C-alpha cells in the first residue's frame, strides 16, 4: 500500500498511540504519528476498553484526521488509545450471511454465531471495468403494472424510488422484493435480497423483517441496519458494507441479488454533516462537491459481468425533501441511476397505490429489455402510446379546470375517461396483487380502446388490428 | 528519464501534497508510491507541490516517494486507436481487463495501442524529399473504412530532409519507418507512434470558415438547428430528457469520418451499450460497421475523478490527430458538467477560493479553451479537416441558469435545449423548438441553397413561423379551449401537431425512422407545407377542419416517417398526388 516495508508496517500497525489532540463531532485529530495511509482503518479504545472503529480522512506529516463510525460520546483527549490497522475497512463475507441481521458496520446483532468469512473484502470496492460489463437486458417481472408495463425493471439495473415523507415506498419495496421474478429463466437461478437501512426508524426496519418473514424469504435476506438512533457516520459505511456482500453473492456465488437501500436522503445528510465539520467548500445546499462521485461509487456497483452468472440489481429509496425532485439528492441520483420511479402525492391522496407518477418515471434500460422474445412484440409501442395519451390527459385536465369539463370536445372527453381508468385500473393495484406481464399488456390495450383508433399514432396498423378493442 | 522529485507530505482524496520537491515541472506526469499510481503536477510552490492522482489514493501515506517522468501527460497516437475503449488517461480497458479482471485494480497499465500487431505500411514520399511537421510519410489501412496517415511528428521544427524511408511492407508500430535530418543537422528516427500532450492543442496552419453542415440524419437538428462541421454545440437537459439518446443517435448517423465518444463521469452500462451496439450497426455512407470509425473514452462516474477531468482532453487530442490527417471528426462529450464538477472537486481539495456554486473561478476559461479546440482547419500538411464538438450539459435540477450551462452558452454557437415536458410525453428527440437555436444557420444557407434548392430553407421558415404562432395560440387555448378559435387558427394548431408528430419526433429504435437523408427530410417537409397551404385554402372555401383531419391521405402523413424508407422517395410523389386530390375533392363537395 505504501512505500514502508511490510515488516516495518506490521510493527507500526501494532503500535498504539495514547492521547488525541482534538475531537470535533465524529472527527478526531491525532498529531505526531508514523506515516499513516489514506483511508486506513482505525481502532479507537476508550478508557473503559470499548473499541470503536473509524477511518483516516486526511493524512499528513503533522496531523491525521480520523472519522469515527460510531459516537464520540465519552471519549476524552488524554486517555483514548488509537491503533492504526495498516489497511482499509474490510468485511469478512460468506454465503452464510443470508438470513442474518447485522449492524451498519456488518457485525451480527441477532445473537447468532459469528460469521466464518470465506473472504475478506475492502468495503470500498473497486470500479467495474466498463469493458467487462454485460449489458443488462433480462426483464424482471415485478407484478406491478406501472413498473412492468411502463418503466420495466431489468436485471442488473439501478432503479431508485423517489418518494416523499408519508408515502408508501416501504410497501412498494417490500412488494417488489416479494414478487420479483424472471420470466423465461432456466429455473436454476438463485435469488437473494441484501437490505441496507440507513437512519430509518426501527419500526420501519421491523416492517421489512416482518414482511420478509411472512413471505418466507427471510432466509434469503441479509439485513444491515443502521437505525435512526445510531451514529450518523455509520450510515456512510452501511451501503458499502451491504454492497460488498452483494458483490460476493453475485459474482462469487452466482446469485441474483436485489439490493434495497433505504433511505439515501439520510446517507447524504451524513455526508453533508461530515463535510461541514471538516469545513470543506460546499456546493449546492451545503452538500459537498463530491456528492455526485460519492453516490456514483455506490450506484455503479450494480450490474452484470461477462462470464459470471450473478447480477446486482439496486433499488435505492429516497425521500425527496419537500417533494422537490430538483433537490440535489434526487437530482444527482437521477443523473447516475438508470431511470427513476417517482411517487406523486396527488395520486397518493386519491388513494391510488402504488402512487407512481407515470410521466416523470422512467426506466432507461427498458428499451433493450422489452419487445419480441423478451416480453411481447407490441410492448414498446404500447407503452409509448400509453405515455403519450396520458401526457395529453394532463393537458386536457388543465384545460378542463379552466373552461369546465362540459366545454371539452368529444375527443377530449374520451381522453378524460381514459385518464380516469388509467389511474384507477392500470396504476392502482393492491399490495397482494401480482399481475403477469400479459395481464398488464392486456389491461393497457383495454384502456387504449377507450380512444378512437386514429389517435393511436404510436402503434402500427397491424398491432391495432390485432389487439384494439379485443 | 525517471527521477525522484519529492515525497508525499499530505493525502486528501485525489489531491496529494508533496514536499522536498527538486525539479518537478508543471503538468508533469508522475508516479506515486510503490503501486506507482499515475498523477500530474498541478501546482508548484517553492519546495512543495500539489499532485492530482488518477487512481484511488487509498493507502498512500506521508513519506511515499514520487517519481517524475520528465514529460507532461500525453496520449499515444498510432494505428490501432480506432475501435478501442480507453479510460480517461488512455489506458486500454480491454487490455486492463485481461490484466486485472473485471474490477479495475490500481497501478496497472498497458500500452494504449498494440506494439505487437503488424500493419501494412505504404510510403507516400521518397528519400531526399523535404518535409515539415505534420507532413504525411505514408499510409496504413487502419480499418476497412479509415486510412491512417503516418505524419511527421509535430515536435519537429523547421524543414527536414528524409534520409531513408521503409518500402511498402508489414511493420510493427515501433519499427523505425523513416529517418529524417532537421535544419540543425540532427537526425530523428520516426516510427508509426507519436505522443502529444493532452492539454495543448495541436497546431494548425489556419482556421477556415464553417460553411458545411454536419448532417446528422436527425430531422429536428438538420432542418431547424443545424450544426456546422467544425462547430460546437451544447446539449443541455435535465436527467431523463434524452441527452445520451440524442448523443448516441448523432454518433451513429452523422456524416463525420471519425467519432470520438467520451463518456465522462456517466454510467458504465451506457458505454457497454455503445460497445455492444456499434459493431453491429452499419454506417449508411460507407456500408461498414460503425465501430470501424469510433473511438470510445469511458471514464465512468465511479472511476477516479481526476481521470474524469483529463478524459475530455484525451478525447479532443485524439480527435485533433485524425483531423490532421484530413478527416472530419465529431466528438460527443457526455457530460461536460461532470468534467466541470471534477474541476470543482479538485479545486475544493486544493482549498482554492471558489466562485459561483463552488466552481473555481477559472471554469469559464477552461470551458472556452475546450470548445475552441473545435474548428475547420487548414492543417500544417495542407489537408483540411475538422473537429466538431457536441457537449452534453447536465444542469442541476434542469435549471439552465447554472454556471456550467451559462458559461458553455458563451462559447458555443448552437444550443439544443432538451425539454423535460417533451421527454415526459416521450417525444424524442426532445429538442425544444422554442429554447434551442443555431447561429450556424445563416452561414450554412449558401450550402443548403446549392445542394437542396431554395425550397428547403423556404419550407423550413414556414414551419418555424407556424411553430411560433402556435406557441402564442396555445396561450389563448389554455384560457378558452381550442373550440373557441376560428377554424383557420385551429388549423394552425392542427398543422403544428402534425409537424411535431410526423416530422420533429423521430424514433431512435425504428430501422426506417432512425436516420433520414436530407432528401427524405426535404420531401417530408414539402408535403407538410403542402398540407398547410392546400388545407388552409380549403378551410377558406368553407370546408370543415374535422373532415380534412379524417382524410385517409392526411392520416398517412403521420406515418410517412415510418412507412417510407430513405430509398423509396418516389412514394412521396404518390402521397402528394393523393393529398392534393383528396383535398380538392372535399372542396368540390363543398361547392
Detailed description of the structure:
The complex is a heterodimer of chains A (about 475) and B (about 600). Chain A is of the alpha/beta class. Helices cover about 35% and strands about 20% of the residues of chain A. Chain A is built from 14 helices and 22 strands. In chain A, α4 links the parallel β16 (about 190-200) and β17 (about 220-225). In chain A, α3 runs parallel beside α4, α11 (about 380-405) crosses α12 and α11 packs across α13 (about 435-450). The termini of chain A are far apart. The model of chain A has no long low-confidence stretch (mean pLDDT about 90). Chain B is of the alpha+beta class. Chain B folds into 4 domains: about 5-70, Elongation Factor Tu (Ef-tu), domain 3, CATH 2.40.30; about 115-190, RNA polymerase II/Efflux pump adaptor protein, barrel-sandwich hybrid domain (OB fold (Dihydrolipoamide Acetyltransferase, E2P), Beta Barrel); about 205-440, P-loop containing nucleotide triphosphate hydrolases (Rossmann fold); about 455-590, Bovine Mitochondrial F1-ATPase, ATP Synthase Beta Chain, Chain D, domain3. Chain B has 16 helices and 26 strands. In chain B, strands 8, 18, 19, 20, 21, 22, 23, 24, 25 and 26 form a 10-stranded mixed β-sheet that branches. Chain B has a 6-stranded antiparallel β-barrel with strand order 1-2-5-4-3-6. In chain B, a hairpin with a 4-residue loop joins β3 and β4. The longest helix of chain B is centred in the C-terminal third of the chain and has 27 residues, at about 455-480. The radius of gyration of chain B is 27 Å and the shape is globular. The termini of chain B are far apart. The interface between A and B is large, with 89 and 82 residues. β5 of chain A pairs antiparallel with β1 of chain B. Chain B: It catalyses: ATP + H2O + 4 H(+)(in) = ADP + phosphate + 5 H(+)(out). Chain B: Produces ATP from ADP in the presence of a proton gradient across the membrane. The V-type alpha chain is a catalytic subunit. Chain B: Its EC number is 7.1.2.2.
Amino acid at each position: 500500500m505504501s512505500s514502508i516495508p511490510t515488516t516495518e508496517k506490521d510493527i507500526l500497525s501494532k503500535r498504539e498511540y495514547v492521547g488525541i489532540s482534538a475531537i470535533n463531532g465524529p472527527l478526531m485529530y491525532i498529531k505526531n504519528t508514523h506515516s499513516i495511509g489514506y483511508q486506513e482503518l482505525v481502532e479507537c479504545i476508550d478508557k473503559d476498553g470499548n473499541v470503536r472503529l473509524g477511518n483516516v480522512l486526511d493524512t499528513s506529516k503533522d496531523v491525521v484526521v480520523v472519522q469515527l463510525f460510531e459516537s464520540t460520546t465519552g471519549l476524552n483527549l488524554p486517555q483514548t488509545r488509537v491503533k492504526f490497522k495498516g489497511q482499509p475497512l474490510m468485511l469478512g463475507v460468506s454465503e452464510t450471511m443470508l438470513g442474518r441481521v447485522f449492524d451498519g458496520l456488518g457485525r451480527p446483532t441477532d445473537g447468532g454465531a459469528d460469521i466464518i468469512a470465506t473472504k475478506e473484502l475492502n468495503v470500498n470496492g473497486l470500479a467495474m471495468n466498463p469493458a467487462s460489463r454485460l449489458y443488462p437486458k433480462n426483464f424482471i417481472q415485478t407484478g406491478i403494472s406501472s413498473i412492468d408495463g411502463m418503466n420495466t425493471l431489468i436485471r442488473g439495473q439501478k432503479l431508485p424510488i423517489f418518494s416523499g415523507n408519508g408515502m408508501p415506498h416501504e410497501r412498494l419495496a417490500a412488494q417488489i422484493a416479494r414478487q420479483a421474478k424472471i420470466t423465461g429463466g432456466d429455473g436454476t437461478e438463485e435469488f437473494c435480497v441484501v437490505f441496507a437501512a440507513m437512519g430509518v426508524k426501527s419500526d420501519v426496519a421491523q416492517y421489512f423483517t416482518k414482511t420478509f418473514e411472512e413471505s418466507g424469504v427471510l432466509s434469503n435476506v441479509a439485513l444491515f441496519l443502521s437505525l435512526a438512533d445510531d451514529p450518523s457516520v455509520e450510515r456512510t459505511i452501511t451501503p458499502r458494507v451491504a454492497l460488498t456482500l452483494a458483490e460476493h453473492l453475485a459474482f462469487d456465488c452466482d446469485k441474483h441479488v436485489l439490493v434495497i437501500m433505504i433511505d439515501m436522503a439520510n446517507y447524504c445528510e451524513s455526508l453533508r454533516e461530515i463535510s461541514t465539520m471538516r469545513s470543506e467548500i460546499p456546493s449546492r445546499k451545503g452538500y459537498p462537491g463530491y456528492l455526485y462521485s460519492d453516490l456514483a461509487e455506490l450506484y455503479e456497483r450494480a450490474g452484470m459481468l461477462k462470464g459470471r452468472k450473478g447480477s446486482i440489481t439496486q433499488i435505492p429509496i429516497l425521500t425527496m425533501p419537500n417533494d422537490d425532485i430538483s433537490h440535489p439528492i434526487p437530482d444527482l441520483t437521477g443523473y447516475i441511476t438508470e431511470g427513476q420511479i417517482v411517487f406523486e402525492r396527488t395520486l397518493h391522496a386519491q388513494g391510488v397505490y402504488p402512487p407512481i407518477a407515470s410521466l416523470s418515471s422512467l426506466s432507461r434500460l427498458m428499451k433493450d429489455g422489452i419487445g419480441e422474445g423478451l416480453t411481447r412484440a407490441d410492448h414498446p409501442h404500447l407503452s409509448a402510446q400509453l405515455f403519450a395519451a396520458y401526457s395529453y390527459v394532463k393537458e386536457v385536465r388543465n384545460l378542463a379546470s379552466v373552461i369546465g369539463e362540459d366545454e371539452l370536445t368529444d375527443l377530449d372527453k374520451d381522453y378524460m375517461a381514459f385518464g380516469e381508468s388509467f389511474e384507477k385500473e392500470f396504476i392502482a393495484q393492491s399490495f397482494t396483487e401480482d399481475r403477469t406481464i400479459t395481464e398488464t399488456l392486456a389491461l393497457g390495450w383495454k384502456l387504449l380502446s377507450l380512444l378512437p383508433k386514429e389517435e393511436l399514432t404510436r402503434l402500427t396498423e397491424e398491432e391495432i388490428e390485432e389487439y384494439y378493442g379485443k | 528519464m525517471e527521477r525522484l522529485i519529492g515525497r508525499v507530505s499530505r493525502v486528501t482524496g485525489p489531491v496529494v501534497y508533496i514536499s522536498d520537491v527538486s525539479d518537478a515541472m508543471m503538468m508533469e506526469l508522475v508516479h506515486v508510491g510503490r503501486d506507482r499510481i499515475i498523477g500530474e503536477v498541478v501546482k508548484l510552490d517553492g519546495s512543495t507541490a500539489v499532485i492530482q492522482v488518477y487512481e484511488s489514493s487509498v493507502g498512500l501515506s506521508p513519506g511515499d516517494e514520487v517519481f517524475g517522468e520528465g514529460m507532461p501527460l500525453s496520449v499515444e497516437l498510432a494505428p490501432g486507436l480506432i475501435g478501442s475503449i480507453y479510460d480517461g488517461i488512455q489506458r486500454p480497458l480491454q487490455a486492463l481487463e485481461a490484466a486485472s479482471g473485471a474490477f479495475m485494480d490500481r497501478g496497472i497499465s498497458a500500452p494504449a495501442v498494440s506494439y505487437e500487431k503488424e500493419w501494412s505500411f505504404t510510403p507516400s514520399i521518397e528519400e531526399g524529399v523535404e518535409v515539415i511537421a505534420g507532413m504525411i510519410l505514408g499510409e496504413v489501412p487502419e480499418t476497412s473504412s479509415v486510412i491512417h496517415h503516418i505524419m511527421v511528428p509535430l515536435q519537429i521544427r523547421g524543414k527536414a530532409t528524409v534520409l531513408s524511408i521503409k518500402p511498402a511492407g508489414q511493420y510493427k508500430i515501433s519499427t523505425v519507418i523513416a529517418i529524417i535530418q532537421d535544419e540543425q543537422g540532427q537526425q530523428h528516427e520516426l516510427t508509426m507512434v507519436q505522443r502529444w500532450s493532452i492539454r495543448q492543442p495541436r497546431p494548425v496552419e489556419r482556421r477556415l470558415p464553417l460553411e458545411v453542415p454536419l448532417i446528422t440524419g436527425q430531422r429536428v437538428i438538420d432542418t431547424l438547428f443545424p450544426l456546422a462541421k467544425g462547430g460546437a454545440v451544447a446539449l443541455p437537459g435535465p436527467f431523463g430528457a434524452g441527452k445520451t439518446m440524442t448523443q448516441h443517435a448523432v454518433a451513429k448517423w452523422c456524416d463525420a469520418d471519425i467519432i470520438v465518444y467520451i463518456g465522462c463521469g456517466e454510467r458504465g452500462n451506457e458505454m457497454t451499450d455503445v460497445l455492444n451496439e456499434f459493431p453491429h450497426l452499419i454506417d449508411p455512407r460507407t456500408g461498414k460497421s460503425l465501430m470501424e470509425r469510433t473511438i470510445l473514452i469511458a471514464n465512468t462516474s465511479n472511476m477516479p475523478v481526476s481521470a474524469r477531468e483529463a478524459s475530455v482532453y484525451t478525447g479532443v487530442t485524439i480527435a485533433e490527430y485524425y483531423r490532421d490527417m484530413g478527416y472530419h471528426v465529431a466528438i460527443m462529450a457526455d457530460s461536460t458538467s461532470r468534467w466541470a464538477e471534477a474541476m470543482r472537486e479538485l479545486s475544493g481539495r486544493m482549498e482554492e477560493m471558489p466562485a459561483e456554486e463552488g466552481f473555481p473561478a477559472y471554469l469559464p476559461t477552461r470551458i472556452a479553451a475546450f470548445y475552441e479546440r473545435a474548428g475547420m482547419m487548414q492543417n500544417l500538411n495542407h489537408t483540411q479537416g475538422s473537429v466538431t464538438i457536441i457537449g452534453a450539459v447536465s444542469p442541476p435540477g434542469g435549471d439552465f441558469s447554472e454556471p456550467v450551462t451559462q458559461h458553455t452558452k458563451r462559447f458555443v454557437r448552437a444550443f439544443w435545449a432538451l425539454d423535460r415536458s417533451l421527454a415526459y410525453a416521450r417525444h424524442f428527440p426532445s429538442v425544444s423548438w422554442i429554447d434551442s437555436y443555431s447561429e450556424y444557420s445563416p452561414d450554412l444557407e449558401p450550402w443548403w441553397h446549392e445542394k437542396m434548392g431554395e425550397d428547403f430553407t423556404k419550407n423550413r421558415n414556414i414551419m418555424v413561423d407556424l411553430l411560433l404562432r402556435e406557441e402564442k395560440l396555445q396561450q389563448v387555448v389554455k384560457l378558452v379551449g381550442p373550440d373557441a378559435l376560428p377554424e383557420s387558427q385551429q388549423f394552425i394548431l392542427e398543422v403544428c401537431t402534425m409537424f411535431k408528430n410526423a416530422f420533429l419526433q423521430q424514433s431512435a429504435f425504428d430501422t426506417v425512422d432512425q436516420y433520414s437523408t436530407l432528401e427524405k427530410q426535404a420531401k417530408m417537409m414539402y408535403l407538410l407545407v403542402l398540407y398547410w397551404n392546400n388545407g388552409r385554402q380549403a378551410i377558406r372555401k368553407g370546408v370543415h377542419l374535422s373532415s380534412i383531419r379524417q382524410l385517409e391521405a392526411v392520416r398517412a402523413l403521420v406515418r410517412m416517417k415510418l412507412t417510407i424508407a430513405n430509398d423509396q422517395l418516389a412514394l412521396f410523389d404518390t402521397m402528394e398526388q393523393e393529398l392534393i386530390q383528396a383535398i380538392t375533392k372535399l372542396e368540390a363537395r363543398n361547392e
